[in-house]
Structure formats: C-alpha cells, structure tokens
Protein 1
Amino acid sequence: MARLNDDNVRLAQEIIGRYPKPRSATIPLLHLAQEQDGHITNDAIRHIGELVGATSAEVLGTCTFYEMFKMEPVGKYLINICGTMSCALMGADDLMHHAEHKLGIKAGSTTPDGLITLEHAECQAACTEAPSVQVNYRYRFRVTPDDIDQLIDDLRAGKLDAEIPPHGTVARVRQHIPAGKGVGAVPPDAPIATTEPVWMSSGQAASS
Amino acid sequence: MSELTGTTYQWAPGFIAGDRPKIVTSRFEYEDSYTLERYLATGGYEGLKAALARPAADVHTEVKNATVLGRGGAGFPAGTKWGLTPPGKFPRYLVVNGDESEPGTYKDRLLMERDPHQLIEGCLIACYAAGLSQCFLYIRGEMALAQERVATALNEAYAAGYIGNNILGSKLSVDIVLHWGAGAYVVGEETALIESLEGNRGMPRLKPPFFPAAIGLYGQPTIVNNVETLANLPWLLVHGAAAYTAIGTETSPGTRMVAVSGHVRRPGVFEIVNGTTTFRDLLYGDEFCGGIRDGHTLKAFVPGGGSAPWFVPDQLDLPFEGRLVGAAGSMLGSGAIMVMDETTDIPKAALTLTRFYAHESCGKCVPCREGGTWLERILARICAGNGTTADLDQLFEVGESICPGNFPHPSSERVGLTTAVPFPYKMTTICFVGPSAYAPVNSALVLFRDEFEAKVTAVPTRTLIPVSAASAAGGGQ
C-alpha cells in the first residue's frame, strides 16, 4: 500500500523524464511519497529506488539528510515555530512555551489525537515579519500568543482546511510541460548535446 | 479578468516608500504582480526580446560590462562567472539557487512569490548569453507559496511560448525545470546544491581545484546563480549596462535588496542603491526603518546574514559596499541586517545563531560537525548559568580549530587592535557553515565579554598535569 499508487507512478515518470539522469528526481519523488502517505515508508523508499535506478540504501541516505522528510507518522498539521535570531529577538521562545502549554506537548512531539505536531524550526526567511510560524509550510507572520491560540482552535475546528492541505502536500500546483512544447532533458553524454547550442554557433542574433 | 490597477502589498513596506530606483521590485506594488497578464502589461519579456535581437556573445558582454555582482553572498560578478566555463565543453547547465535560508535573509522568497516571471526571463537571458542548454530552478522546500507561484508562472510561460522550443520564434530552445529542496541550509552552497540536484545528500564538494563552472552538474560546466542576480537581467537588457552602472558606485553598481529585522521601528525589505546607502540610513532613515524601537538604543547589529561578524554603533556610517565592509572585518553576505537593542541578552543571541549552524552542519568536515556542536553546548551551558571562566577560553579554543589564526574583529579599534583583519579568514572546512557557527560566538565574546563574565562562575585557570619525564622533573622542583 505504501508504494506509490498508479497515478503517482505516472506523475513520477513525468517528473523523471524532465531530468537528464533519473536519480535527480529522488527528492521530488520523496515529496510525492510523503504527499501520498503523510510520511515516508520503507516501501516507498524501495519503490523510489526502483524508479530512479538507485538502491534503497541510497534513497534512504538522501531521505534522512533532509529535514522535511519524516520517517515516522506526524500530525495532519505540522506547526513550525521559528527560533533563529530575528524571531528569537522578537519573542519566539515565549511563543514556543505558550504553544507547548496550549497543546500539552513538548516541541518535537504530536498531540495524542494525532492532529498536530509541534516543532522548533530554523530560519524561515520571514525575518522582518518575526516571529514567524509555519503550518504545513504556510506562513503566519508576527504571531502573538493569542494568534497561536486562535490558530490551534481553528485547526481543530477544521476552519483552515481550504487554505492548508494535510501534511505532506507542499505545493498544490505542479509544473507540467505540455507535449510538444518542451525541449526535453539534455543528458550530459548525448551526441547532439555535446556540440555548441545552435543559437551560439551562428554568432548571429537568435531572432534573425 | 483582474483590473490592471495597482493596490499596495501589505507586507514589506519598504517597496512603497520613497522614490529610489527600482530594478527588481518595480512590480511589487501590484496585488497581482505574479500573473503573466500583469507582467506583460508592465514591460515583461521585453528584456528577453532585446537579448534575442542580438548575438549571444553581445549579450554576455553587456552583462559583463554592467558588473552585476552575485547576490547570494560571495558577490562574484555574474558575467565573469559565465565566462569561466571551459570553451568547447557542452552541454552546460544553469542552476538557480533559490534555497534561501541564511538567518536574516528574506528577498529571494519575495522575488519568487511576487514576480516569478521576472526570474524566468532572467534565466532565459542567462541561458542565451552563456550557451546553457537546460535550466534547473531549485526552490527551498519550505516555501510552499513560492513553489506554487513559480510553477504557475512556468506553466503560463510554456503555454505562451516563452519557454521551450524556439522561444518567441527564435533559435533559442531551453527547458526550465522546477526542482524543490527538502530543508537543508547547507544546500545553499553551490556544490552542495548540485549534489542535492543529483539526488544525493547535500554535502559540499571539495573546491578548488574544480569549480562548478568547469565541473558541475553531472560533471558538466554549470553556472549557479542566485535568484536576485538573475532578476536583475531583464531590466539590464532593456536599459543597457550604462544605465545600470549609473546607479550605485563603480565597484558596486545597481541596486540590491536588503532585509532589516529585529529591534527596529519598521522592519522591512528594501531595494537600496548599491554602495552608497549607509547602515545609518538604513536603520535610522525615515524612508527605511525609522530608528530603533521606541525608547531603546542600538547595541549591535549583524551586517550581512547570520554568518557575518557583528558590528557595533561605531560602524554605522559604513556604506553598504562589499569591499569597505570586508576591510572592516565583516561581510555583506546575502543582504540581511539583524538589529539588537540594549535589552538584548548577547550570549543568548549568539546561541540562537550558533545553534542554527550546529544544527545545519552536514557532517562532512569534522571541525564543523564537532566544533559547531561544542560551541552550542558550551554557550547553552553559559546561558543556563552553569558555565565557568574556563568555558570562555574553551570557546576560543574550539573556534581556533575551525578558523585558525586571526579572526576578523568587526570593531578592531574598540578592542584595541590597530588594524582590522580583512575578510575572509582561514578555515579548516570545505564550506562556510563551520566558520559561520563561530562568527557570532567570536563577535559576541570579543565585543561583549563582560556579559559572558557576568554569567559564569570564576574558577582558577586550568593547570595541566605533566606527562613527560622532563616536565615531571621540572614540575617536581
């Protein structure tokens, strides 16, 4: 079950086709697996290995390097509270204590009902809007303890379902290169690609 | 169909204040700035058309003449970088570094969210000028909105014929592939970015001898450019190098985006004139941050992202110019200023940064993997009130193993040094993550040692037990 389903395999093949070498698709496919199951399973690792032509150990090695991939189930909502400098200066520590108190769990764990996981995060690139919080990688800016209460209540009541997809889904819009419009992947060793691109070799303007 | 009348964007107040020249943020005032419709209505893809009407080598020269400095941190001119590819070796790739995660930095995400077409156009111009056959746009994993906006923009641009085969009926044929990361700071380093793009753990490659321009993605010549660098190209191609160099100074032309955060009245992201705007303008100027938050005074600030050694009020009048700031012992890095007022607990502030780098170390080089964690643990001990005076020496000792020799002191006169130690320093690691873990510790300890001493218990200086016979004999006298 935890292998990629048929729809996702088709999607995976489309993604792999864009890269000169299949292994480059490892991270996008891990995201796909996480989107399907909410976390990364051993079966998914094996399946991705088959798809990109790598051993499961290689895929696992890549997977465990990156923070966003969770090898254990996490809540439907992952709340990341940034604690790096700008946010820390603007009161991120207090915010984290408040959230821990509100949820009754420590950072790094999940509520007993499996709905919310709370995590300490590093810089989220929203330093001027500190303190910054992400829910499934959707931003909340200049968050106060009251905002955290409101956010958690709204998540529990399901009011934010339209805006925030369940954990695993990052971007809801995918790139699709329409048939016939794309150039296709340029592999490093294809004979046609080892010569100068056509717009370079003429020495003329490309639009002439 | 949306109305083509602008409404202001509620975040990043800097964009609407003042009448400074705008190169990369000109569309930010429109609510729908990310759509193809708005982009075309505001001069979009004109730079690409201008480029395609000239031979590729000409376009390359134009960019070289404009000296577009890399905005990712190192400040290497983009046109020169393109020229470093070995002649005759093809295919060449373009990798766009959108893995913005340096603490304090906040500009590439805005450029991708607010104006993705400008970035796409910049990528196409770079591919044309430097003969790059395929482009990979690497966006940080945690930036969901940026990924959605760029994906939508790419789909629109493909449908309209701006990307793909024979772009706008010309000979240029390039694909742009959206790739997203999964949360690793070190991947912002260009060789680690390439490793990650090849599907591996994002660990930096050893360089020199081979830089990505010679041996990069799949062993081929690869240009890695920052998002903001590429976003400059459409404007540059429309207005020309002369107009570009007329803004800013000779060594730092054009504009650049700077995020000012922390204890200021109006934190924000600003597009400023390169090289002439001073830190005082930025922190106190009415069109920028408007001063330190009410009733407080400036204590220290980080001038160029978490990796940069800190500055104190003495350096406020330095302009935002790479060489001058480098000579003063710090760097501009990725254009991020973090401001601390007098209420800041300095050891704790240093801890937040050091914890970041210790956490983000990829583990390839021992001094960073072990040293970063040591620095974090010692600092945490000091902040918790359990430190001793020996811990302060230990911090320097650990730092010495990451950056041997002199480390820049941003306030050299204040701490009694006669000459500033220029940036960069020596390092025992492949990339800058290791030294970055030490930079905040060193700055805090050198500039504000009294605050550390107030937190630690004094113990006698450590005495070593002699091990050799000779020293044992000497010690026994």
Protein 2
Amino acid sequence: MNTIVSLLFKEFHLELRRKSVVAGLIIYLFATVFICYLIFALRHNLITPLVWGALFWITILFTAVNTVAKSFIGEKKGKDIYYYSIARPEAIILSKIIYNFVLCLLMSLSGVALFTLFLQNPIQDIGLFLLLIVLTSFGFSASLTLLSGIAAKANNSNILMAILSFPVIISIILMAVKVTKSCIDGLDRSVSMDEIVTLLAINCLVGAASYLLFPYIWRS
Amino acid sequence: MRKSWWKIVCVVLLIYTVIAGFLFNVPRLSIVNETIRALYFHVPMWFGMVFLFLFSMIYAIRYLKNHSLQNDIYSTAFASVGLVYGLLGIFTGMIWANYTWGTPWHGDPKQNGAAIATLVYLAYFILRSSIENEEQRARLSAVYNIFAFAAMIPLIFIIPRMTDSMHPGSGGNPGFNMYDLDSKMRMVFYPACAGWILLGVWISTLQIRTRLLEETILDQENE
C-alpha cells in the first residue's frame, strides 16, 4: 500500500516539475474544441445536441488515448529496470492506473468546460453526466494502461497502441453515448441505470484483468 | 490428435447436418419462412468461434504458467481458426439478413458487436507480427489473448441483449425460444453445433501439427 502511494507521489511530482505532458494534452484538447467551434460558428444552429455528444466523445476518446499512451511508451529502459527492482508489479500497475485515471478525469472535465464555453451545453442532467465521466475515465485508464504496457515492448508502438485499444474502448464508448443521449434529453435516471451498471461491470472486469495480467508483461 | 474416431464422427455429423438441414421439415414462422434453415449454419459458427477462442485462451494461460512454446503454437492455431469461424459467421449472417431484413448489413447491435470482436482478434495477429523476439512475442500475445477474451464477452453477449435488435429473441421479434426451436429443429441443430465445433478443432490440430513439425525441422537444421 505504501509503495503504491509513494509511486503515485513520484508520478505527480515528476509531472508537476516538467508539466510537459499535461500542457501538451491541454493544448491538444483546446485545439480540437477550437476547430469545432470555428467550423460550426460559420452557420448557426448546426450543432444539434446529438452532434454535440458525438464531437464530445470523439475528442475525449483521442485525448484519453494520447494521455495514457505516454505512460509506458515514454519510459526509458534504465528506469524500467530500476522500478523492477524496487517495487512489486501490482503496485506499479495500480499506481499507473490511478495516475492515468486522475489525468483522464482532469482532461474530461476540462473538455466539458471548454465545450460548454465554446459550443453551449445541452446537457440537462449534469449529475448523471459527471458520474458517467468518472466511470469512463476509469475504464479508459484501466484498459489503456495495460495495452500501453504491451505496446511499449513491441516495435511500432504508437500505431499498435491505437490498433489494440480501439476495440476495447468501443464497448465503453457505446454505453457512454447512450447515457449521454439520455442526459441530453433529460430523461429520468432510472432509464440509464442499465448502462451505468454495465459500465461499472466493464470497469471491474478490465481493472481485474489488468491487475492480474500485468506481472507477466513486466518480467523482461 | 492422431486418433481418427472423432474425425469420422465429425464428418458423419456434418453430412447429416447438410442433408437433414435442407430436406427435413422446419416450423413455419413469419418473416423467416424457409431461411430458418440458415440456423444450422450461422449459429454453430458462433458457438464454434467462442469454443475455439476459449481453447485459445486456456492455452494462453497455460503458456504463462510454464512457458513452453508448444502452448503458444496451440493458442495461435485455435485463435486463427476461431477468427475464420467468426468471419464465416458474419458472412453467413449477411446472407441470411439479405433475405429476411432486406440488406446485408443492417447496423444491428449483434452484427456490430461481432464485427468488433473480429477486430479484436485481428489486432492480436498484428501484435504477433510486430514483435521479433519469440519468447516475448509469445508472452505478450498470451496476455493480450486473455485480455481480449475478457473484453469480448461483454461485446457479444451482454450489449446486444440490452438493446433493441433485429435478431430473433430480442426487442419483440419472433424469438427462437423453446416453443419454436422445437424437437424438429433441435434434432438437426445440436448435431450441427457438435459437428462444426469438431471441424474447427480438427483444422486447428492440423495447423498445430504442421507448426510443430516445422519447429522440429528447424531445430534439427540448427544442430
């Protein structure tokens, strides 16, 4: 437990010192939202609520993939061996998942803020939407962290990361899009409970799989 | 793998399926009419695919436990034949859909879920081809295999049941429940499933034996 906490602190410290990763992602997010704004501001009333939802999830998806891809692919070889000798693999994967979860959550919330600022906000049920964002951030983080670990050991890692991650993400996105539509329409919360429970189940499944499988990747 | 009794059983079952599937009587249901016979070919493809991927995952777990490359060969062979079965399942589904729903690809959730599951295993093979080191390739693809199987289950089984779908049995279509899939169809359906699964395992064992022989030849050449 202490190992996980100290590894987490290490990640946050490194990040706060350099700020390169977070700054890059914020710029990526901002650029995407701004391009959407520029194009849709050409003619008014083009953004129906469904289009808003689609643009939002596309942006969040690519931002999340970029966020988590940097977690293993950017590490240098020497550091890998050092971590291997001082910490159990379970601690490493848990700390990386939690760190990526916090990052994804920050990015998603910034995304919501930017989208609201530039493209108005058709969401009527904010509470459910925020819960949805928390759940999807965890899902993205858990699945993408493991896949980034796999892709980091292969040759063309960036393309491989995208190919490996796409199908797994789809099931999370499917649920998220359905719940977003219910939030936009302002439907009663019980309508979306099925999808929320499914998201929780997917999160548990993917988290457990990542936790169990990571030690096998780590030994090299 | 070399015994032939189960292969003879497989051939007999499949001949029975083809003949009985086209000649026996089938219940009359609206919309599907005679195309219900596609049930004997389309659904066993999916059962076969799930079984083959299950075997593939079991050998992947075995590889992670004792690191013998033989398990990796088994795992890959089952995965490749499972992928072929998946593609055949989608193809037979498209033919069936063309006659009952009007278009080959309807955007039905089960169709989409099946297509994405196929993508998952295609990514498995891309992963394998992009790693040079044999031992590392086996280890990473075993991990991805287990992860992919865990990710596939929600896609294929849970999500389509939760939504409205044109597939029978969900969203108010005439379902193939126990009243319609009566003893007439079951007599052909269960042997068909067994026959197709056995065929899939047979093809996998052929691929495994070929690979094992190749490895033996390579080892002898290197001595």
Protein 3
Amino acid sequence: MSQPFIATFGFPVLSDISWVRSVHLHDASGSSGKGHLFKVWLKGEISGISYAYPSGRSIMESKSIYPHKVLPYLLLAPSFVIIGYFLFYPTFETFRLSLFRLGPFGIRKLYVKFGNFIDLFTSADYLQSFKISFLFSFSVVVFGLGVSLAIAVLVNRKIRGINFYRAALIWPYALSPAIAGALWVFLFDSSAGYLNYFISVLFDVKPKWLTSGSLALVVVTAAATWKNLGYNIILFLAGLQNIPDDIKEAARIDGASPFQVFWKITFPLLSPMTFFLLVMNLIYSYFGSFGLIHVMTEGGPANSTNILIYDLYRQAFINHNAGLAAAESMILFALVVILTGLQFGTSGRGVHYQ
Amino acid sequence: MIVFLTLSLFFSLIVTPVQAEIKIKFWHAMSGGRIDLLKGMADDFNKTHSGITVESQYIGSYNETLNKTIAAVKAGAPPHIFQLYEVGTRGMIDGGMIMPIGNIAKPGEVDWSDYVDAVMSYYKINGKVYSMPFNSSTPILFYNKTLFKKAGLDVNKPPDTWNLVREMGKKIMDSGAAEAGITWNMHSWYFEQWHAVQNALLADKGNGREGRAGKVIFDESAGVNIVKWWTGLEKDKIYLNVGRGWSNHRKAFISGQAAMMISSTSDVTQMTKAFNEKGWGLGTGFFPRPDAVPRQGVVIGGGTLWLTKDHPKAELQAAWEFLKWISMPEQQVTWHKGTGYFPIRKSAMKLLEKEGWFNKYPNYKVAFDQLLETKTSLATQGALIGIFPQLRAAVQSGIEKVYEGKATPEQALKEAAAKTNKELANYNSLFK
C-alpha cells in the first residue's frame, strides 16, 4: 500500500517548494525489496528548474526499537517549521483569499464564498485555458518523453566525443526560460525572425508563427518540449545504463531482434524512470513553462497560449485580482493532485522495480 | 527579489548620507536613457534641498512597478512615490493606499491654472487632484521622410486621415520603398484614443466621470469602425502586425520595414537619435482620424506620480516637496528635452518657445499642437474605469480574433464588452 503525502504550493508569488513523497511498501520476501522515490521540486515564475533524486535504494528492514521518544520530533521540528511556514501557511492563505473578492491593494474585500470559482467555471476564457493546458501538457509530456528516449538510446554508446554530445544535449535545460524564450522569438518572429527570413527568400511567404493562434500554440509547445529535453535525456541515460547488459545479451543469444530487445526488455526495465519522468514532465508542463510563454506570446494571440498558470499570473499581477488568482491557484492545485494521484494509482501495475 | 535587495544595498552605499535625514523612495517605470535622466534630476533636487535625499529607482514596466508597490505596501515598507499609467487612476483612488495630492497641498500652494488644461481635465476628479501629473504623452504619427521621397510622396504632408493612411501606405508598398506602410503595437491605447478622436465614450456615466462607471460602451459604432479599419489594414498587409509589447513596432520603424509608425510622443527623442544615425529624415504628424468625423482631439497618456500614505508627516512633506519641484517649469523642460513627453506646465511651454526649441526640433511640436487643438469633452478627458487592465486584455484579444477571422468586428467587440462588464460588475460590488 502506498501512502502519498502531498503538500502543495501556495501563492505563486514566492518560489514554491512542492513536496511529494511516496513510499511503496513491498513484501520483503518478494524479489523487490523496499524502494522509495523521493522528489522535491521548486516551482515559481523565476525558474522552472526541477530537482529530483530518484533512487532505487532498498532500506534494510529493522526491527530494533529506537530508544528516544522526544528526540525524533525535535530533530524534525525545523523541517516542520519551514514546511509549515512556506508551504502550509501560504496554502491556507491562498484558500482563504480565494473566498474573497479583493481590491487592488487588498484593502477592500468582500466575502463571496465560492463566487470566484463560479465566475471561473462560467467563463469561456477560463474553460478555454483548461483545454489549451491539456493539449499543451499532453504534447509536452508525450513528445518530450518520446523524443528524449530516442535520443538517450542513440547517445547510450561509447563513441568518440560522446561526452561532448551529451553535454550539448543537456545544455538547453540549463538556460533560463527567459533567454530560451528570447532565442525562440529571434527565430520565429514573423517579421524580423531568422526562420522567416529564409522561408521568405525560398517561398516568398512569412508564416505568422507567433501572431496566429494555432501556430503560436505549436511553437510554444515545441519550445517547452525542447527546453526540457536535456533533463529527460540525462535521466533516461542513467536509467538505460542501470540495465544490466547480461539480460540483453541473453535475449540476443535467444534470437531476439533489437526491436524486441528494446520493447520487451529495455523499456519495461526503464519503467521506474519513465514513470518518474512522466510525473516530472507533467509538473513542468503545468507550472514550469510560464517563463517561456511570458516572453514569447504573453498568453496571446487571442488567448491561444493562455495556459492555466499564465492566466493565474494575469489575474494576480496584471489585473490585480488577488481573489480570483487565488481561486485559480486552488483549481490548479486540485488538478495536479488528481493527475499525480491517478499516476500513482496506476503505477503498481506498470512499473517494474528491480 | 534578490536583485532588488542587491540594488538597494548597492544604491544605499553609493548615496552616502552626508546630511540626508529624510530618505524618499521614488519608484518609476521610465526605462532606457530615462533612468539616468531621472537619477540626474533627483540628484539635482538632493543638492538643492538639504535634509532630503530622493532615491530614484527604475523598477520595470508600469505594471511591475505597481506590483512591487503592492508587495511593499503589504510588507509595510512602501515607496513614498510611485509612478503608474494614467488609466490606473480610478483603481488607485479606489485602492485606499494613496494620499491624494489635494489633501497635502495647502490652498494656493500650487498654481493649477499654469498646468496644461488637457492634463488637469484628466487628473482633476470632482475638483480634487489625486496624483501629480508627470510624464504626459499623446499618440502621434511618425513617418520616414526618406522612404516617403522614394515612394514619390510629399515629404511634408503626412496622412492625417484613415483613407490617406491606406492610400499612402499602399503607394509605399507598391513602390517597394518599404515592406509595409504603417505599424503600431497591439495595444488598446490606440483603440481608446480613436474613440476620443471621434468624441465617443468608452463607458457610461459620462465616461466614468459623472458617476462610477457601470458598463462599457466601446462596442458601439465608433468602436466597430475603428476595428474594421484597423483589421482591414492588417488584412491587406498595409499594417504590419508586430504583436504586443512596446519595442517591436519601434524596431520595425527604425529598420525601415514600415514607413510610418503610430506611437507615443515620448518616443521622439529615441526615434530622432536612431534616424540621425541612419541618415534618414524623421517627420511627425497628427494621430490620423476617421474621414467622416471632425477631429475632436486626443486623451493625454503617459503616467502620473502617486504618494502613498502611512508615512510620518515629515516624510510625506519631503516627498511633496519633490513632487512640487519636479513639476516646476525648468524641470519639465529638462524632462521634455530628454524624452519627448510634453511639459505639463504652460510656463514651461513658453520657456521652450522662447528659446526657439520648436523651430530647431519641429517634431516635438506636433504633440503640443495636437493637444492645444483638442476640444475638451468627456471623451477627451479620458475614461475613469477601475478595471482598465481587464478592459484592455479583452479589447486586444477581440482584435486578434478578428485578425484570424474568428469573429467580425461587431462580434469581437460585443464579446469583449460583455466580458469587461462582468468584471466591472464584480469590481463595483466592492464599493456598494
């Protein structure tokens, strides 16, 4: 049984720390000992950096009784204080704010119960945001994982200069979202961008990459996917290198084609990493892509790249509507909790731990 | 946050407090060369006013400045003076965090009659002045005289009506002088100005000046005509669509991609410099109006300076001294020459005329003339609406929808108005 303990982000003004710790307990006599996944990630509008420390450690089951009664709590107290102040308190505050309608400085307020939520769910623009976010997220996760897995497989060999290639592949991940966004704008700006210069010379058209609704979403999705490839590649690489060669050797001797070796052996053994990256990319696509969108399209044109986190930013920092923004924050929180919960719920079946 | 802390630490180390007893924090949104200009002006004030040190700090855009101020207010350390765009006026009055200038000015202390009428008609609400006007602008047409010549157009006759813009823009494109006839950024400001030019209102209750505005009316015929013309130009590629933000249209104009540009008069200095470097001739003209409508005028744009309350009396008084000082004719002349914003004092304008400034630099004069010829009315006084950001977002989205053929101008504006009205009703519910 697993006991997910999920604490969430508060108001996105601060850089928020979101903590998911889930402990999978398996029968100690089974082939898989105890493993645990421990994730910490940092979200905020400043950077979309995610830290993750996956480990497949197995913890020795200990039956000795820990002699101290109070010491554990004392040792944990600092962590609880910090988590309480930076996670729980903002979360409760956000929830409280979401029940109010507030003036620009927060001085005038009106208690509206769930009025903000009703306003959001009856707003065509907000529902549109939902739709766009789903599309965006789905694409970023699926293409992100697909492409990076392919690249990781290609890069998983010992050829000359392989370290250079690997470093070059992770480089985009290290860029700040603002700079990455600026680079993509230099390329894709419809009147002054490099790409359109070449296209106009060859074909005499200048596609409206960032000023046409459908194209803008495609470009922004591509940018967000590209930005996170490095991270996925490095982790997939680690996962691939953890697969012992003798299993694959044995399969090859038995006459398996490379295709079969990959899909029947490599991919299943990679599943803990894939699952982990699935969750990380989901979080990234919902929260981490804010900076890129802000620089590239500001949610436009005509709200076509206005994903949920961007709409939240707009309500909070452009419209100065703190109550509505808090409500959006709560909705986004609930959405990600549900999605992550679903993933953990299905994980037992698909994921093979060694 | 870290940058701000480092900057303020750095700054406080540089501004050695020799005699400064009162430190006044002045947060502004004037970027580029204007940062140093304002810093220089603050230093001048500090030199001549012992006991007060004004620290001028560039925060970012108007919006970022407001956000920072809100956060600072909540943290209990607000700046004394902050700058905000003109349309934030209703929101700030409602906000409850500002000290109205009218409350701190002693009767007769300020000669309001010396202030330009159009400026005061915007910022005086029910006879009271709430903020100190500072950087006022109007939209004007910039044009590339060199490219005009290339296209065979009269370099002294910029288009001042919609039909002429289309005609001359098309001629420019056909002659190959430029890729597009005209450009301006996707911003609701122009939409609002084109209302004023037609003497049309944006909101009910006399544009929000005869009572609290309850609904917007920008989806009527005046607004529809604007969007029809605007999107029509875009469709025919006479108008170059450079998206949002304030830098792209300037870039397109400076690079010669577009032969004309509509922008704020505060760009004159920057454009003059850029065109001098390129050896091109720069011309300016009035904001183009619809042919069928006589020119009513424009609304002043730009920003204004607000005092926050919750400071000790001595500090408020010191900040007020600075506000008075910076709106003196000499300072306004300095500010005008360095930017292109027009001085808000009639005596400052007279100073400039006396030294022959406008004869040397006629491009600066256009903004003045346009303002002096503006006929005062509720439309040109400017609308007072508490939720301008939402209004602008709705209008901009609506126009972009028409670009993509997803709505007609009428539909797009109706939708935008409906959205805005809903938010306005919510906003107003706070003040019942």
Protein 4
Amino acid sequence: MNPGPTEHDLRSIVVSVITATAPDVADDIATIGDDVDLFEEFGLDSMDRMNIMTSLSESTGVTIPDEQYPRLNTMNDLIGHLS
Amino acid sequence: MTDTELFSYAMPSLGADMDEGAVIEWLVEVGDTVERGQVVARVETEKSDIDIETWRGGTVAEIVVGAGETVPVGTVLMHLHANGAEHGPTPLPSPAPTAKPREEISFPLERDNSSRGPRPAPADRAPRVPHETVWASPLARRLAGERGIALLDIDGTGPGGAIRSSDLPELAALQAHSDHPPTAAHENEPRSRTERIRSVIAVRMARSNAEIPHYRLQYDIDLGPLTAHLSTVNAERPIGERIVPAAALVRAVALTAQRHPELNGTWRDGRFRPGLAVNVSVAISLRGGGLVTPTIRHADDVTLDETMRLLREFTTVARTGTLRSEWTAITSSITVTNLGDRGADLVHGLISPPEVALVGFGRIAERPMVVDGVVVARPVVIATLAADHRATDGAIGSRFLSTLANTLQHPEQL
C-alpha cells in the first residue's frame, strides 16, 4: 500500500464532496451507515453521481474509471476505491 | 439613448405560472453602477428563489419596492439612469419597448413574452384576454385548482382584471370573517419551499390531467451504440468532462423536436402554436419532494458537452434552492423527464401545460433484445411520449419516438 490519506481523511473528503454536491443531505450524511447505498438513500441521480465522482477524483488524485461508477455506492465502496 | 434617460426595471415574469414575486434581497443600492446582465436582486416565486438580472446598464436612481414586499409581475422595482446620467426629478417615461435583451425570438404568449423586458404596470395592462392568459394571484389559482373552479368564468377585481382569491365565489363565505384582506392574510403565511413547489405542481398537474387529452406511446431504444460511444469518449477525457447518458438523451430529444415541430410548442387559445425555438425543459427532482424544471434555451443548437455542463449545473443549483432567471424566464416548448439510473422501467408522465408533449425515460437496463435474429442482452431505455391529442395524433407521436430511437443509434452525431 502506498502511504496516503488515512481512512479518516478519506471519509472527511467523501462527506465534504457529497455535501457540496447535495447541500440538502448535510444533516444526514454524518450518521449514515458505512454500507448504506448513499445514492439510493439520498435520491442522488446520475448527474449528482458524476459531480461527486469528479470532485472525489480531483480531491484525491485517484482515477475513477467510468465503468466503476455503478459499483461505488456506499461509504465503504468509495473509501475502498480511494484508498 | 440619451444622458437623461431613466428607465424602469420591473418584476420580470420568470415562468409561465408566475404572477407575482417577492423581493427577498436587493444586491444593489441607490447610486450603484450596474452593468447589463448584472444580478440586482433575489426574488422569491412560488417555485423557487431566483436571481434577477438587469438588461440595461446604468446607475441606480431609486429602489421602489423594498425587500420583503410581494408585487405582481410588471410592477416597477427600481429606476435606473442609463449611462450614469444624473438623477433628476424627471417624470418617468413609459417602459422602453426596445429594451429587449439577448433573446431575439419572442413567444406570442402574453404572460411570457415580455419576461426580459420592461412591461407596463398592471393597471395599464390591456384588458384580460380570456382562456390561457387569465391573470390570477397564485393563491386564487391554487384555490381554484383545488376546488375545480374555472378561472375563465370569474371577473377579477385585482390589477388589470386579475383574479384575486376573494373573487372566487365559493370562498366568499370562508373569507367573510377575516379581519384582513384574505389574499394578503393567506399569502403571508410562511410556507416552506417544498410546500410552495408542491402547490405549484398540484395546480399544474391537476390542470394537465383535467384539460389535456393525453395519448401515450412507448418505444424500447437500444442504447448499445450510445453506451459504447460514451465509454470510448469518456475514457479519453478528464473526469470533469465526461458525459453521462442522460445528457445524450436530452440532446437527442432536442434534435428530434427540431425535426418534429408538431410536438414542439404550446397549445393556447384553442390551437397549437409551434415553438419558435426548441427550448427543452428538464425535470429535476428534489430531495424531500417536488421538482423544478429549468430550461435549456435553443437546446437543438447546444452541443452535447454544453448540454452536459448545463445539466450538471441544474442539478447542483436546484439543490441549493436558487435557480437563475435565464433558466426559467423562457417559454419551454417540450419537457424531458428522466427517472435516472435507479428509477422505474418507464414513466407515463403528464404534460406540463401549455406544452403539448413530454418525453420520459426510465432506467437504462440490460434487457433482452433481438438483434439479427438472436436474443441478446442490450442496454435499453424505454422512452415514452405523452402528447396532447388536441394537437397531434398517435401517428405523429410514433414517428417522433422512431426518430428519437434512430438519433440515438448515431451517438457520434449528437
């Protein structure tokens, strides 16, 4: 494993990116379970997904291939991919 | 334009439904120099909060309507000195009919076509035109919708013959005991954004369902070529410039609408009026309920990349609660609703009046399709068309969907 951001850092990044994309979920995202489908739970659509993936990639420098999008749905999925 | 020209900036119409708006906040003050296109105030409408821009540059001479006040569309909000001329007690001229910004195409809809230009004060308006152009306060409209009262049958007592809630016959008794003017009393009740949006949707959809004889068609469209094309294109692009299928679907509808003008326009005063442009409204659902429908102006002339950029912006901005006037102040000619990648298989929607067609897309999913005599799994979207039978018949709608499907088989041309 390359040294990089900790899981805690990545979680913060994911939370801030999703909150920036969808300010209306700010209150709920802090308490959501790690295996809950964030897109389903928050009613995020494909545009939101694209906005979120773009921001995550820009914030972390990690590439997220197009075909991975549908597989990255939970906090665990996202942190796992970005780690 | 002379140095002494004063012009009036009036509450714009920011959508077909808007009759009045509340100034939430002024972003300029007397003495400020403003440029054409500058956002000068934030306005609350039934649907959303909207930043409004001035279409003339100059110096703010007077702010007429203060923050917190609700006024009908067309009410003068402020006066500007064009070219920074000195303020003087010059009597105000009539609003300049030539002050029309950017948009060159005007739609012949009385309540919309002056949305980006000054319009006369309500008292000076031409007498009310019957049918689709009934003027009514949002409350009157809402209550009439809830009670099934036809606004056409009512003589309004408001400005320019506008119907007020107190003009509704069934409400007279309810309102008799009120100490305050009933309209003001009801409309001043604070309502959440969701409630406001809900009530607009309630009225519009009740009207759609009551007035429009819908016919509905559906078409399974093979998106194999599109998804393959987007994969190739996106692989070469930085993540921020990638395209999602939803943008291609909107773009394809715009191109299809251009080729089928019978479905691109509005039904008013008993006849179909073709849209002078393809202005595609996109339904964006909001978390917690409700939706907003920002419009892509001249969507057939907007590239796929630009369509994608606009849709991303719509989605983000819609969630923050403030749309831009440039997205709402134009008459849309057709609407697209897309259930997204996790929605239902298909949507049988209701047309957004006064339009005559609504195109719906369900979830894109792998479904069995027969290709060259063999059943294969293909990414398929079920496209639906809800169309106004007063304006067209099923054959035209069917050709529309066929063109749409065909357009999506050539994604490189989008």
